Amino acid sequence: MIRIGIVGIGFMGMIHYLAAQKLKGAKVTAICSRDAKKRAGDWRGIRGNFGPPGTQMKLSRVKKYEELDELLADPDIDMVDVCNPTQQHAATALAALKAGKHVLVEKAIALDTKQADAMVKTAQHAGKLLMVAHVLPFFPEFAFAAEAVRGGKYGKLLGAHFTRVISRPDWSSDIADPAKTGGPAVDLHIHDTHFIGLICGVPEKVFSSGVQENGAVQYLTTQYLYGPGGPAVSCSSGAVAQKGREFVHGYEIYLERATLVYESGTKPLALLTADGKVKHAKLKGGGEATTAFSAEIQIPVDGIPAGREPDLLSGQLARGALVLCHKECQSVRTGKAVAVS
After folding, report:
1. What is the spatial distance between Cα 310 and Cα 103, in angstroms, rounded to a whole number?
2. Which domains does the chain show, CATH number per domain?
3. Predicted pLDDT of residue 48
4. Cα separation, 85 vs 187, whole angstroms
5. N or C: at which end does the chain have fewer Cβ atoms within 10 angstroms?
6. pLDDT at res. 129
7. Of the candidates 139, 166, 147, the residue with the CA atom closest to the CA atom of residue 240
8. Contacts of 64 (CB under 8 A, 6+ apart)
9. Pairing of the two strands 157-167 and 258-263
10. Cα 156 from chain centroid?
């Protein structure tokens, strides 16, 4: 049984707690929050852009800690699930690793690359797993796409375009604050750079154009330059839509023997084949909003006993996603293509 301690009871902390109720071989045994009401189970003030609203939780069987050090000193916790604000991810994860805990940290891994490097190195030195919770590969439509591209069933990847656009959320002012989240070009767009890194690999360069406001890139369109052999990949992402369309994500993926088309809310995943047929793929998962998160958290639960870092939650892959976001922001500001080391 893997015993989980959740640090930070905001929207994502609540989602992880709810998702953990469906885990096999694991349970949440402790939470950490400086908010006395939340430690008492009053989560009614929590809200986000999907899933159920916060409610009164029954936490009689869960330990409650006010300070991180108290939770880290608990010998009955195997994995620390870091769900506090992004600017606190690095310090929290480093402390947990040094305390001998495995770590799952909600995306983004950190705000800057140096912090991410320190986290990866500390995990290696401590002999513990550092896993980063990028949930997108666990959404049914993206899981299907990843399997199609990585498995090679329809031939090699020729090109792709990804979209992720939201309206300014009234449930979180922090997304526009680069000091707290990195702004939309990190907090939102890192879903895309992680998925692109997973199925396409690391590009040689990026070229981006975009919109800046208050020191943060609010919206950008990027070309990922892989060299003469391709693939030809691009993405548009940011927080510029009006309230009539609060969220949309999707893709068009071009393979040698198939095209995948998906747009949330308007276009169910379609598989287009060379014979002119359009098939709607049978997707695994779905259901409740937390289903993808349950599948995501199950991966580290299964990986910890074997001491195996899951590739979908790799700390190095998450670091690479952060690097791409920063390189793209640099390209927006300079108007030039930027090499990705």
Report:
1. 12
2. 2-135+292-312 (3.40.50.720), 137-286+321-339 (3.30.360.10)
3. 77
4. 11
5. C
6. 97
7. 166
8. 30, 31, 32, 33, 39, 40
9. unpaired
10. 25
Percentage above 90 pLDDT, the chain: 84
What single-letter amino acid sits at 122?
T
Distance CA 105, CA 273 (A): 39
What pLDDT score does 172 carry?
Answer: 55
pLDDT computed for residue 282 by the predictor: 82
Phi, psi torsion values for 133, nearest 5 degrees: -85, 85
Q: Quick one: pLDDT at residue 173?
A: 58
With contact defined as beta carbons under 8 Å apart, do 185 and 327 qualify?
Answer: no
Give the pair of three-digit tokens for residue 105: 């940290």
Tokens of 245: 């369309």
Higher-confidence residue: 306 or 192? 192
Specify whether the CB–CB gap between 235 and 161 falls below 8 A. yes
**CA distance linking residue 282 with residue 132, whole number of Å:** 28
Q: What's the CA angle centered on 182, arms 16 and 79, to 5 degrees?
A: 30
Position 179 scores a pLDDT of 78
Which amino acid belongs to residue 82?
V
Please give, one letter per residue, the 3-state secondary structure of the chain: CEEEEEECCCHHHHHHHHHHCCCCCEEEEEEECCCHHHHCCECCCCCCCCCCCCCECCCCCCEEECCHHHHHCCCCCCEEEECCCHHHHHHHHHHHHHCCCEEEEECCCCCCHHHHHHHHHHHHHHCCCEEEECCHHHCHHHHHHHHHHHHCCCCCEEEEEEEEEEECCCCCCHHHCCCCCCCHHHHCCHHHHHHHHHHHCCCCEEEEEEEEECCEEEEEEEEEECCCCCCEEEEEEEEEECHHHCEEEEEEEEECCEEEEEECCCEEEEEEECCCCEEECCCCCCCCCCHHHHHHHHHHHHHHHHCCCCHHHEHHHHHHHHHHHHHHHHHHHHCCCEECC
